[in-house]
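Hello Y.,

Per our agreement to keep a running log of every chain we model this quarter, I'm adding this entry. I've kept the format consistent with earlier entries: sequence first, then predicted structure.
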Amino acid sequence: MKKVLIVDDDKSFLQSLIDGFKAYEDKFSIITAGDGIEAVQALKKEEVSLVLTDLKMPRMDGFELVAHLSSNYSDTPVIVMTAFGTPEMEESLRAMGTIQYIEKPIDFAVLVEKILKGLKGPSHDQGYITGVSLSSFLQLLEIDKKTCTLTIRSGNKKGYMHFNDGDLLDANYKELQGSEAAFEVVSWKNVEIAMDSSCSIKEKNISESLGFILLEGSRRTDENDAAGEFSSSGSDDEPFGDLDSLNMENLDLNLADENGLQSPAASGVASKAPELSEAVAANPVLSQFVMMLSSFPEIENATVSAKDGTTLHQEGNPDSSIANFITYVAVAVEQIQTTIGASDKQHTIFTMSDGSKLIVLCGPEVIVGLTVGSSVFPVPIADGLRPVLRRITL
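Predicted structure for the entry above:
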C-alpha cells in the first residue's frame, strides 16, 4: 500500500483530510506530521510515496522540508499547499509550471486527483515531476519573501546563496562571488539543497533579478550540454558575451568595424546565426538581440515586430497569423497598463493546446513573441529579456 505523508501544523485541518481520505483507503494510506521535524522523522521510519506539505509551519517549515526532500528523497513527488497571499505570488507559482501546488482553502476533489496522479509516477503523467528543481525552489523563496542561506551541492561542488526577504543578496562558489557565482550554481544539475533559516549577509552584491539569473544559468547549462556537438573556433570567447552584460546600461555590442559597427554575421557563429532582414541587420542592438534569441534552444519560435505591426524577424515555425496576434496583445496590455497605472514590468503568457507557452513582451519600440516548451519557466525568460528590449530603438 502506498503511503502519503501530509505535513501541516493545523491539527483540525489534518483530521479533516484523514476523514476525507477514508474513501480512498484501497488506494493509499495516510501519515501525518505537524511540522518539518516530525516529517523528517516519519520519512526515516516509513516508505513514503508522496509528500503533501504546507509552507508556513513552526520549527522546521515547508521550505526546509522541501530542501531536505530534494537532497535525501529526490524521487519522491511533492505537492505544496499555499494560500498564495498575493496575486503576484499566485501568478509566479502558476507560471513556474514544474512544481505541483494546491490552493488553500483546499478543493478536496482536486487534491485527490493530484495525489493519485503523483502516485502513478512521471511515466504516467509527464506534467508531474518528482521532487522540486532548484529553480522552482529559488522562485518559491522569492515569492514567499524567505530569509535564508542555502548550501547547494552537486557532486564535489559546493556553493552558497543568500536571501533576505526573498531578495537574492549574494552567492559564493570557490573564488567566484555575486552574479558569476549565482550563474554557476544555478546551472548545476542533480543538486542537493541544505537550508539555514538565517542570513548573515547585509549588503546586496547582486544587481540582476532572480529571473535573469535563472535564465542565464539555463543558457549555460544548455551551452555546456552542447559543447561537444560543435567544433572549436579556436577562441574561448562567447560570440555574444555573457547574458549578464546585456542587463547593464552600457551594452557592449562587440560589433565594431572601421565605422564603429559591423554585421552580426561576422561574429564567428555564421553556422548558427539566423537570417536577418535588412532592417534588422542595419540595427546593431536589434540584430544582436535576434541572434541572442537564436542561441537559446529553449526558445522554439520567435517573432519580433515594430509597434505598427511590421514584422521585423521570425524564426522557427510560427503560425502565419501569430505576428498580428502578438501585436494585438501587446497594444491591449499597454492600454490596460496605462488605465490602471501598472508598472512597465509586465508580460503576457498564454498556455497553448500542446502545453507550450507563448510569451509576449513589449519594449518602447519593439514587440516580441516567444514560444517555449511546456517544461520551460516563462517568467525568468521574460524578466531576463526585458532589460534588453528597453535598449532597442528603430
